[in-house]
Amino acid sequence: MSTLLYLHGFNSSPKSIKAQQMQEYLQQKRPDIHMICPQLAATPAAAWAQIQAICDDIQGNFGVAGSSLGGFLATLVAEQYGVRAVVINPAVNPHILLQDYLGEQLNPYTDERYSLGEHHMQELSELRLDAPTCMDRIWLLQQQGDEVLDYREALDYYRFARVCIQKGGDHSFVGFDHYCAQIIRFLQL
After folding, report:
1. What is the pLDDT of residue 131?
2. String of DSSP letters for 94-131
3. For the chain, does the N or the C end have fewer beta carbons within 10 angstroms?
4. Domain 2-186 classified CATH 3.40.50.1820?
5. Are the beta carbons of 99 and 6 closer than 8 angstroms?
6. Looking at residue 182, what is its pLDDT?
7. Apex CA 23: angle with CA 92 and CA 181, to 5°?
8. End-to-end distance of the chain based on CA atoms, in angstroms?
9. Burial track 139-175 (b if 16+ CB lie within 10 A, e otherwise)
10. Could you count the other beta carbons within 10 Å of the beta carbon of residue 13?
């Protein structure tokens, strides 16, 4: 059985719309694929350790998809584990982006309260790949109307990957459900 690892974004959860749409698609069209969508730890190093433990335990073929901060982490999975990845409106420089979120946080999906500090930005900076070698295994899905991230950063960073850019949209990636089948095909699951 093949496995899809889906990584949600910052202050999100497996209950996010895209994760639910992918789960529904797999249940209806591809029940042969097992989807793992963990509730990621709120802090970067803990989330990455959690992801590594999951990847180490997966038996057989797997691919990874991630949105926003999950796209950043999916790139790390592709690099370290040699698998294919789909990154959706990914955070390219989360150590800079999340500077605006330092301090007390509340995850609206889980009601978890935690504090985000400068040391977490350092963790993100240390996780960032300056020159990934896995771009031939990555597909970037990007919408120009993303109100959270500058889409041009992703276009530059993932310029050697397969790229799908759309006008309009927003950070949630409007119309994601229309891509589920293509994502599974790209991941070769």
Report:
1. 86
2. HHHHGGGG-EEEE-TTT--EEEE-HHHHHHHHHH--SS
3. N
4. yes
5. no
6. 97
7. 75
8. 9
9. bbbbbeebeebebebbbebbeebeeeeeeebebbbee
10. 17
Q: Which two tokens stand for residue 57?
A: 């335990």
Angle at the Cα of 74 (from 7 to 180), degrees rounded to 5? 65
Q: CB–CB of 62/83 below 8 Å?
A: yes
For residues 10 and 69, is the Cβ–Cβ distance under 8 A?
A: yes
> What is the model's pTM?
0.96
Distance (Å, rounded) from C-alpha 20 to C-alpha 41? 19
pLDDT at 158: 97
DSSP 14-68: TTSHHHHHHHHHHHHH-TTEEEE-----SSHHHHHHHHHHHHHH--S-EEEEEET
**Which residues in the chain come in under a pLDDT of 50?**
none
Q: What does the chain come to in residues?
A: 189
Beta strands in 8-112 (DSSP E): 33-36, 62-67, 85-88, 103-106
Instruction: Output the pLDDT for position 1.
Output: 84
Both structure tokens of 39: 């509730």
Count the Cβ atoms, other than its own, within 10 Å of residue 104: 9
